[in-house]
Specification:
about 200 residues; mainly beta; Lipocalin
Length: about 200
């Protein structure tokens, strides 16, 4: 009899678990697959490094770490001259932040905005990782949308920024996405007491 109770409990737990899965159904939130890594854009003109950002590292940001043509005809590094923020117009395009804190959505994707330095405008974007690539869907006015497929890269090309974000050899986060600076107070030096 006791054996039957144990079997009944196992069956009942299985039925409850199956009901919970069935009730969750297609409306259940999917966990986004982390798109962190370095990706070659579909047109091959840039590599974008995507990494976690935000206070709890729940969002993703992206930075241009390599450009096919990083300089103008005079050999001068290209700058963000079309940025609506006047303070950012003198920054180099190589190393600037292009993906602006995308948040996970219930469909298992990341949504937010991408900045286009060619015209100084930001667009709605959705990003999700495929089996071997990254899907990027951008929209203007939520009506005109286009998709791209980015390819993951594992090597570093000449001129590619390889340092950590914020380091001299790495990209620079926009002020609002820069990690907080850790300030530690120095302890006062200990002074040995003279023996009496």
């Amino acid at each position: 009899m006791r054996h039957m109770t144990l079997v009944s409990r196992i069956i009942m737990r299985s039925v409850i678990a199956a009901c919970q899965v069935a009730l969750a159904g297609p409306g259940a939130a999917a966990t986004p697959t982390d798109p962190s890594g370095t990706w070659l854009t579909e047109d091959g003109r840039a590599r974008v490094r995507i990494e976690r950002c935000g206070a709890k590292l729940e969002q993703i940001c992206g930075y241009v770490v390599w450009m096919k043509e990083p300089a103008d005809a005079n050999g001068q590094p290209l700058r963000d001259q079309n940025n609506p923020d006047l303070a950012k117009r003198s920054r180099f395009l190589l190393g600037h932040q292009v993906i602006l804190g995308l948040k996970p959505n219930p469909e298992g994707r990341f949504d937010g905005q991408i900045y286009n330095a060619e015209n100084g405008k930001s667009y709605d974007i959705s990003v999700w990782r495929g089996a071997t690539d990254l899907k990027v869907k951008g929209c203007m006015l939520s009506v005109f949308c286009a998709s791209q497929t980015w390819t993951q890269t594992m090597n570093a090309l000449p001129g590619q920024l390889v340092g950590m974000t914020g380091d001299p050899t790495g990209p620079r986060a926009d002020k609002e996405w820069a990690p907080p600076i850790q300030v530690t107070q120095a302890k006062p030096p200990t002074v040995a007491k003279a023996a009496k």
